[in-house]
């Protein structure tokens, strides 16, 4: 079995990768892997047959993706239900119309989120994926319950800060874990599938918020309080169950896979990118990885992807209610529909990008159509046109986040760099959230002129950066195929553009 997207190795040559610690790893030395040398290539055979291999991958899919997708989708609901709570009475109860109070409680979440991204991802391999992700989930669910009992905007701001601190490590942790289990051209549709669940649950959250807001007056609490309390309780329950289901990294999967199956998973990852086993994370290693300029391009790409996402989550209900004249209940329900289309488009694009092994061009198309959709949402001449803009924007937006994460994951090697890169990438997403809170000013409701044009400008810059990176990858691959350089220190390994 040849590594995907790689040229056949020459006879007698080993595919080598030198990590930052200076350890030379040879994929042909991995236990359980037999090499049969043909006149012009190396063929790798595994201890289990092909049918068994497919069953193992399917078991990993079933065990890993649904629970991570469900846990993350709930965390996404927790952080983006603020706009739904706002139109359900929170603005009046906490006096959020005064000055920039609403903008502040949106923004403080992301300040904490950015600060704790990298530290959380460095804790994950030491604490264990199940332990750490379940702990984070139960923590932010508990904080959400507390938000339902706040009586002032200051207390809400404190809760939102704590929520950002504990949610910071969740998406990078999930991404890190998923990319450690699959080869480069399996991970695109899996991250898309993981994300689709969050999209669908995110759309359903608007309907759930509407139903919960009907509890207004129960036990003396307003409807918005019940949105936080019930959704927080669901989060605690699901994430506690997740502790029993989540599997750790392949090298620690003894309770999930047989020794032969575990070795097969490690071998195929080594065969694909040379990092089936964890390398040591030290301060020097982290600083080495942070020197890679591509990490910051991916971070900006995610910023440009999350900014419109948060804008739609926080402000679409307001646009529907105040800008289009819908009632509170109708604005909540209408916020849900575009996410069904988004789930379909995200899966199709994930499948296409895996099949044709292309990332950058697909992302550029999605970001362009997202920007156009936002313009139509605000500047359309009729409610029908504006609502179509929401379908267009949300529909093509939702692939961008898993698309950027896959683009990044496909072009790095080693567990340590994967941990740092996923965290720095998602820091960009957190900055996008901060910009959403700042650029989409409450004083400009419901047109949000500044926010819309800031989003459009950043989307255009992101498209240019992807084009630059794709050109660099193409030229670097050409040099590698001529034997002039090694890509990421590996022989016969190429960037995915």
TrEMBL record:
<dbReference type="GO" id="GO:0016020">
    <property type="term" value="C:membrane"/>
</dbReference>
<feature type="transmembrane region" description="Helical">
    <location>
        <begin position="64"/>
        <end position="90"/>
    </location>
</feature>
<protein>
    <recommendedName>
        <fullName>Major facilitator superfamily (MFS) profile domain-containing protein</fullName>
    </recommendedName>
</protein>
<dbReference type="GO" id="GO:0022857">
    <property type="term" value="F:transmembrane transporter activity"/>
</dbReference>
<keyword id="KW-0472">Membrane</keyword>
<feature type="transmembrane region" description="Helical">
    <location>
        <begin position="419"/>
        <end position="440"/>
    </location>
</feature>
<feature type="transmembrane region" description="Helical">
    <location>
        <begin position="224"/>
        <end position="246"/>
    </location>
</feature>
<feature type="transmembrane region" description="Helical">
    <location>
        <begin position="131"/>
        <end position="150"/>
    </location>
</feature>
<feature type="compositionally biased region" description="Basic and acidic residues">
    <location>
        <begin position="11"/>
        <end position="34"/>
    </location>
</feature>
<feature type="transmembrane region" description="Helical">
    <location>
        <begin position="360"/>
        <end position="379"/>
    </location>
</feature>
<dbReference type="InterPro" id="IPR020846">
    <property type="entry name" value="MFS_dom"/>
</dbReference>
<keyword id="KW-0812">Transmembrane</keyword>
<dbReference type="InterPro" id="IPR036259">
    <property type="entry name" value="MFS_trans_sf"/>
</dbReference>
<feature type="region of interest" description="Disordered">
    <location>
        <begin position="1"/>
        <end position="34"/>
    </location>
</feature>
<feature type="transmembrane region" description="Helical">
    <location>
        <begin position="194"/>
        <end position="212"/>
    </location>
</feature>
<feature type="transmembrane region" description="Helical">
    <location>
        <begin position="385"/>
        <end position="407"/>
    </location>
</feature>
<keyword id="KW-1133">Transmembrane helix</keyword>
<keyword id="KW-0813">Transport</keyword>
<feature type="transmembrane region" description="Helical">
    <location>
        <begin position="102"/>
        <end position="124"/>
    </location>
</feature>
<feature type="transmembrane region" description="Helical">
    <location>
        <begin position="295"/>
        <end position="316"/>
    </location>
</feature>
<feature type="domain" description="Major facilitator superfamily (MFS) profile">
    <location>
        <begin position="64"/>
        <end position="478"/>
    </location>
</feature>
<dbReference type="Pfam" id="PF07690">
    <property type="entry name" value="MFS_1"/>
</dbReference>
<feature type="transmembrane region" description="Helical">
    <location>
        <begin position="336"/>
        <end position="353"/>
    </location>
</feature>
<feature type="transmembrane region" description="Helical">
    <location>
        <begin position="452"/>
        <end position="473"/>
    </location>
</feature>
<dbReference type="InterPro" id="IPR011701">
    <property type="entry name" value="MFS"/>
</dbReference>
<feature type="transmembrane region" description="Helical">
    <location>
        <begin position="162"/>
        <end position="182"/>
    </location>
</feature>
């Amino acid at each position: 079995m040849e590594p995907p997207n790689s040229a056949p190795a020459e006879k007698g040559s080993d595919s080598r990768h030198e990590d930052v610690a200076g350890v030379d790893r040879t994929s042909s030395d991995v236990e359980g892997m037999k090499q049969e040398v043909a006149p012009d290539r190396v063929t790798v055979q595994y201890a289990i047959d092909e049918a068994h291999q497919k069953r193992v991958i399917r078991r990993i899919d079933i065990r890993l993706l649904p629970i991570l997708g469900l846990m993350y989708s709930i965390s996404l609901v927790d952080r983006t239900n603020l706009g739904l709570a706002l139109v359900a009475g929170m603005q009046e109860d906490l006096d959020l119309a005064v000055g920039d109070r609403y903008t502040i409680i949106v923004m403080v979440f992301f300040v904490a989120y950015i600060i704790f991204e990298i530290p959380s991802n460095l804790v994950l391999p030491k604490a264990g994926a199940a332990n750490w992700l379940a702990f984070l989930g139960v923590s932010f669910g508990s904080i959400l319950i507390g938000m339902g009992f706040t009586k002032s905007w200051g207390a809400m701001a404190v809760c939102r800060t704590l929520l950002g601190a504990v949610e910071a490590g969740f998406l990078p942790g999930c991404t890190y874990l998923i990319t450690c289990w699959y080869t480069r051209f399996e991970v695109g549709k899996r991250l898309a599938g993981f994300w689709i669940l969050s999209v669908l649950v995110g759309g359903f959250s608007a309907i759930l918020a509407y139903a919960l807001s009907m509890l207004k007056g129960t036990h003396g609490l307003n409807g918005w309080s019940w949105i936080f309390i019930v959704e927080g309780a669901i989060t605690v329950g699901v994430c506690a169950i997740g502790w029993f289901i989540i599997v750790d990294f392949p090298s620690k999967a003894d309770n999930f896979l047989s020794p032969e199956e575990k070795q097969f998973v490690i071998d195929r990852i080594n065969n694909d990118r040379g990092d089936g086993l964890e390398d040591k994370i030290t301060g020097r290693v982290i600083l080495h990885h942070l020197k890679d300029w591509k990490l910051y391009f991916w971070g900006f790409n995610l910023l440009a992807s999350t900014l419109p996402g948060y804008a739609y989550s926080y402000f679409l209900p307001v646009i529907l209610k105040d800008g289009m004249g819908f009632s509170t209940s109708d604005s909540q329900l209408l916020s849900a529909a575009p996410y069904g289309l988004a789930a379909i488009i995200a899966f199709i694009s994930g499948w296409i990008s895996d099949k044709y092994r292309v990332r950058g061009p697909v992302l550029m198309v999605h970001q362009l159509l997202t920007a156009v959709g936002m313009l139509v949402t605000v500047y359309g001449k009729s409610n029908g046109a504006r609502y179509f803009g929401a379908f267009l924007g949300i529909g093509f937006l939702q692939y961008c986040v898993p698309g950027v994460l896959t683009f990044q994951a496909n072009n790095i090697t080693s567990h340590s760099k994967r941990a740092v890169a996923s965290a720095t990438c998602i820091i960009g997403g957190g900055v996008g959230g901060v910009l959403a809170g700042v650029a989409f000013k409450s004083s400009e409701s419901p047109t949000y002129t500044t926010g819309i044009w800031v989003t459009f400008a950043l989307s255009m810059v992101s498209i240019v950066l992807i084009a630059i990176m794709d050109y660099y990858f193409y030229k670097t691959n050409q040099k590698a195929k001529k034997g002039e350089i090694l890509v990421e220190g590996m022989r016969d390994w190429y960037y995915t553009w």
